[in-house]
Amino acid sequence: MLNSAILTDNLVEATPKKSKALTWYYKNKEKAAAYKKAHYYANIDRYKARATKFGKSETRKQYLIKNKEKTKAYNKQRWLKVKESKPHLKVIYNITIDQYNEMFIKQNESCLGCKQHRSLLKRDLCVDHCHVTGKIRGLLCDSCNKALGLIKDNKDTLLNLITYLNNA
To answer: What is the mean pLDDT of residues 44-63?
Structure first.
């Protein structure tokens, strides 16, 4: 059966079989879309009730309009709490906030690339790391980190750009 197998390097590998429902769906996409639309309009009250329950209901919208400053202050406080804890450090780079702060102090609270102090920057310093090994190299400002990313951490490209700037 050539339909249910793939021939690669004289070896036959089985292809995953699709379910009957999925096969039917691919053959009858228009019919399925029409059925979904008809089902929605037949049960529109249930869908609207669910949207009100889980979405922003009219009373919630009115509350947000009346208490704009209160909700804005609450959201800012919540964001600052998350920002201070920097949860992405553990997830992405496997370092703690203490390790980040230690690196930050060791670098004199400045970017390793352009030597600008944190107080002159709009954003916190980024954790620069090797995408191949995952080794953390240091903390860079957003501009230096993007520049390294754009040249794909290629030293030759960076040296060519330095030569270009010197000759210009």
So the answer is: 74
The one-character DSSP state at 77 is H
What band does 88 get if pLDDT is binned at 50, 70 and 90? confident
Clarify whether residues 76 and 138 are in a common domain: no
**Cα-based distances in Å from 129 to 28, 54, 99, 140:** 49, 40, 14, 10
Whether residue 114 sits in one domain with residue 68: no
pTM: 0.54
92 and 163 assigned to the same domain: yes
DSSP 89-153: IIIII---HHHHHHHHHHTTTB-TTT--BGGG-SSPPEEEE-TTT--EEEEE-HHHHHHHHHTTT
Residue linked to tokens 């980040």 = 100
Rounded Cα gap, residues 80 and 67, in angstroms: 20
* Other beta carbons within 10 Å of 139: 23
Strand partners, 13: 6
